[in-house]
Amino acid sequence: MPTTPVPAKAPSSARSLLRLWPYVRPVRARLLLAAVIAITASCLSLVIPLVLKWMVDGPVADRDPGGVWLGALVLLLLGIAEAVLFGIRRWLVSRPLARLEAAMRGDLYAHLQRLPVAFHDRWASGQLLSRGTTDLMLVRMFLQFPLTFLVVNGTTILVGFIILFAQDWLLALVLLIPVVPLTVLISYFESRYALAARRAQDQIGDLTTLVEESVLGIRVVKGFGRHRSQARAFKELSQELRGTELVKARLLAGIWSAITVIPEIAIGAALVLGTVQVADGDISAGTLVAFLSIALALRWPVESIGFLLAMSQEAATATDRYFEVLDEERERDTPVGGGSPERAEPTNPAEPTNPAEPADPADRGGLRFEGVSFRYPDSAEGVPPVLDRIDLRIRPGETLALVGSTGSGKTTLTALVPRLHEVTAGRITLDGEDIATMPRERLRALVSVAFEEPTLFSASVGENVLMGAADGTAAPAAELDRALAVAQAGFVRSLPDGVDTGVGEQGLSLSGGQRQRLALARAVVGRPRFLVLDDPLSALDVHTEALVEAALREVLRETTALVVAHRPSTVLLADRVALLSGGRIAAVGTHQELMRTNAEYAWLMSGSTGTGEGNHPR
Ligand SMILES: Nc1ncnc2c1ncn2[C@@H]1O[C@H](COP(=O)(O)OP(=O)(O)OP(=O)(O)O)[C@@H](O)[C@H]1O
């Protein structure tokens, strides 16, 4: 089950929540005003007991009905004012906080687009989805409710106690005693709840990943009759999540009971003590009524602290999870030193920039790999690099086929050209310019790629293909037609809405060969100077393959291309062939030359049965 690295130690909740400040800043005035309004409304509720005191000691004791009606009217007005103020508070914060949530989600999405492929290899998509949905909702809810009410309730409790002390300091002291055990219990609760909240949110991410995989892989699930095992995996994860939610509920129930029971006991003790004081004539009956009313009015602010803290804790965890992604380093445009990480900078200005640099500038054209090595960032220590000191040159206008056994690193090599991964050592140049020093946008405008696994988006056929064209391409319709013709993708004309037909999620409504042809059309639509094709014809029948090859031959004439090939028919598109073996370029030549001189190549091209990996003659 894919999981995501969790930091060894969680930062404090307050520090986590403070990271929200840049987003809260623009709405701080509204939040502050809303808090002031809520505090006013909450304090109004504390005035009610004082009106009651006035009524008991005044009009009620004097049997004055007019005074009682007046008191009742004041109480009604206070109630209405409190309700209206709380309504205004909600109106003030709802809209800006929805905007804040949208802004955070927008930043997360933009950042995800700019994170390197290596990041996406490591992180499960469900973890990212849950961070962009559930976690951000928790953050918005925190800003909308607990943040304000922790301040409001804290202030209400403070003001309430000031009034209580003003009424009778001894009774007030009795009510203050529970603060000590409650503080200890709350701090214990907070630390335990933080761990459970983090676990639950990570488990939601894992569950999302599983659901996503099951839905996307529904054909495999059904084809192999894996419903039960998938359902079992789902059930196990659901049960884990349920267990964690129960732990949270138990913790919350515990703190809720303590926060409710302990102050109730104190109020009971104050009631007994107060009654004795009234009997002794130390305080008036009105004072005792007011005192107990205030104490009861403070019950909700005190009791609510438990779940306000729980919600804050969840928001702190959600904030941590959000920033864990945002803190990941984006793809760098130009690595430190202006080149690939291990390339030594010349110390002597008289020395050439690169000792391997050809003297004749004409020789610098095309696509060159110079001493390129690559190792996946997460590969184990001691494992040899996937690519080891690759030197290769594809001349301008030339097509080079890359052949090698399964797992030899062909896809990896092609991924280095558009900088989906950064070389570990060495450099790659396009017409003499190091790609590491090129702005990515320019690089990706120069280089077009079609991968072995064609990925399409939930958009129309036309939109999917034109993704490969530069923004503002003149006559996009004509370019689209040309690209579809090259890729032999005439089938789109017979789709219900032609090029405007939606292809569904990941293009799964199309056949594998149809998707591959659209991916190929996308690669050629922008008339790229450099074309990288990773076995682009693997899913086509021999007749369509022959047609695509014929059209592709025309395209390849105008571009410099690197084509991964598994079959002789694809190899024949190329001017020369390079054999990748053991992470190195073992041989370069024409197909015929290599067939004659290289046993491994001849074996790979012969289509002899074998598993491929490591099963070829050396
Ligand atoms: N993201 C990754 N992280 C770690 N290792 C990887 C990753 N992708 C590929 N590899 C490893 O790199 C090696 C080369 O893989 P690559 O996909 O480049 O081979 P290939 O020659 O294209 O294979 P095929 O012909 O089957 O497509 C393999 O051993 C593979 O397990």
UniProtKB/TrEMBL annotation:
UniProt region (Disordered), positions on chain: 328-364
Record's compositionally biased regions (Low complexity): 346-359
CDD domains xrefs: ABC_6TM_Rv0194_D1_like
GO CC list: plasma membrane
InterPro entries: AAA+_ATPase, ABC1_TM_dom, ABC1_TM_sf, ABC_transporter-like_ATP-bd, ABC_transporter-like_CS, P-loop_NTPase, Type_1_exporter
Matching Gene3D superfamilies: ABC transporter type 1, transmembrane domain, P-loop containing nucleotide triphosphate hydrolases
Entry GO MF terms: ABC-type oligopeptide transporter activity; ATP binding; ATP hydrolysis activity
Keywords: ATP-binding, Cell membrane, Membrane, Nucleotide-binding, Transmembrane, Transmembrane helix, Transport
Domain of life: Bacteria
Segments forming domain ABC transporter: 367-607
SMART domains, alphabetized: AAA
Compartment list: Cell membrane
Protein's membrane topology: Multi-pass membrane protein
TM helices/strands, residue ranges: 31-56, 68-88, 141-163, 169-189, 251-271, 283-302
All residue ranges annotated as the ABC transmembrane type-1 domain in the record: 32-314
Pfam families registered for this protein in UniProt: ABC_membrane, ABC_tran
Protein name, entry field: ABC transporter ATP-binding protein
Native organism: Streptomyces jumonjinensis
